[in-house]
C-alpha cells in the first residue's frame, strides 16, 4: 500500500499567488510581512501559523472552501463552516432568497450553487425550460448544461453563438479564479456541445448593445432578456458564499408586456 502525501501548504499558497499574478514582493507588501518570510513559507522552510494562512488567503482572495483546504494542509482545523442550506442557522438566508425570488415575479429568477446546480427558482423560470428534455430536468439540474445542451434550452436561443460565448467565457473565468476541477470538467463538456452559429472570440458590443442579451424564441415571438447576478455581501459560511441569484429582466418593452400578461393570465386561470 502507498500513501499519497498531502501537498504542503506553502506550495498551495504559491500556486494561489501565481494564479493571481502577484510577485512575492507584491504579496508580502499587501500582507505586511517580509518577502523573506513569505519565501520561507512557500518553500516549506517556515511553518505558517493559522493566522498567517488566513491573512494570505484574504489578500489572495481565496474562496472560503479553499481557505479551509489551506488550513487543513497547514495542520489546522477549518475555520469556515459548510452548513446544509436546510439547517436552522441558515433560516434567514433561505428567507432572503425566497423573498428575492418571489419579489422578482413576473420575471424569471433562480438560485444556483458554485457548480451551477439549481437550488431554487420562482415560477417564471418555467418559461426558460419549455421544450427541454425531461432527463435534463431531473435533480440535480445543472443550469449551464441545461442552457447549452442540444436537447435543452439551446434550440430556443436565437443568438446561441453569442450567448454560448458569454456562458463559456464566464465559466472559464470562474474555473480559473477558483481552481475547481469540477468547473474545468464542466467547461470541457459544454465546449463539446454543437452550435450552428458563429461564436465571437471576444465579447464586443454591437450597435446599441450594453450587455449580452438572451434572445429566446417562444412560439411566434422572440423574447429578449438581460441577466443579473446577486451574491451575499459578507458570507462566513462556505454554502452561503457559493450561492448566487441569477435574475432575468426584460430587455425591451414587448418582452416586459408579454411576461406581465402571462403572469396575470396564470393568476386568473
From TrEMBL:
Entry-linked Pfam families: HTH_3, MLTR_LBD
Location of the HTH cro/C1-type domain: 13-67
Any one GO molecular function term: DNA binding
PANTHER family cross-referenced by the UniProt entry: BLL4672 PROTEIN-RELATED, BLL5781 PROTEIN
Protein name (database record): XRE family transcriptional regulator
Species the sequence originates in: Saccharopolyspora elongata
Amino acid at each position: 500500500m502507498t500513501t499519497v502525501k498531502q501537498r504542503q501548504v506553502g506550495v498551495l499558497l504559491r500556486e494561489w499567488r501565481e494564479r493571481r499574478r502577484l510577485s512575492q514582493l507584491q504579496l508580502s507588501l499587501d500582507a505586511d510581512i517580509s518577502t523573506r518570510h513569505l519565501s520561507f513559507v512557500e518553500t516549506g522552510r517556515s511553518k505558517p501559523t493559522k493566522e498567517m494562512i488566513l491573512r494570505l488567503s484574504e489578500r489572495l482572495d481565496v474562496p472560503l472552501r479553499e481557505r479551509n483546504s489551506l488550513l487543513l494542509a497547514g495542520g489546522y482545523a477549518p475555520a469556515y463552516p459548510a452548513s446544509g442550506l436546510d439547517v436552522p442557522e441558515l433560516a434567514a438566508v433561505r428567507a432572503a432568497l425566497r423573498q428575492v425570488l418571489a419579489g422578482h415575479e413576473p420575471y424569471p429568477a433562480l438560485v444556483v450553487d458554485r457548480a451551477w446546480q439549481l437550488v431554487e427558482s420562482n415560477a417564471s423560470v418555467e418559461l426558460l425550460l419549455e421544450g427541454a428534455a425531461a432527463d435534463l430536468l431531473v435533480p440535480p439540474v445543472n443550469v449551464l448544461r441545461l442552457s447549452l445542451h442540444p436537447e435543452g434550452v439551446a434550440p430556443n436561443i436565437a443568438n446561441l453563438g453569442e450567448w454560448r460565448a458569454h456562458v463559456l467565457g464566464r465559466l472559464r473565468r470562474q474555473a480559473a479564479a477558483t481552481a475547481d476541477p469540477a468547473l474545468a470538467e464542466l467547461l470541457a463538456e459544454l465546449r463539446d456541445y454543437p452550435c450552428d452559429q458563429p461564436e465571437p472570440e471576444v465579447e464586443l458590443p454591437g450597435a446599441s448593445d450594453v450587455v449580452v442579451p438572451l434572445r429566446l424564441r417562444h412560439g411566434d415571438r422572440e423574447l429578449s432578456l438581460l441577466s443579473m447576478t446577486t451574491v451575499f455581501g459578507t458570507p462566513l459560511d462556505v454554502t452561503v458564499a457559493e450561492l448566487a441569484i441569477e435574475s432575468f429582466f426584460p430587455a425591451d418593452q414587448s418582452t416586459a408586456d408579454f411576461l406581465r400578461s402571462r403572469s396575470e393570465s396564470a393568476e386568473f386561470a
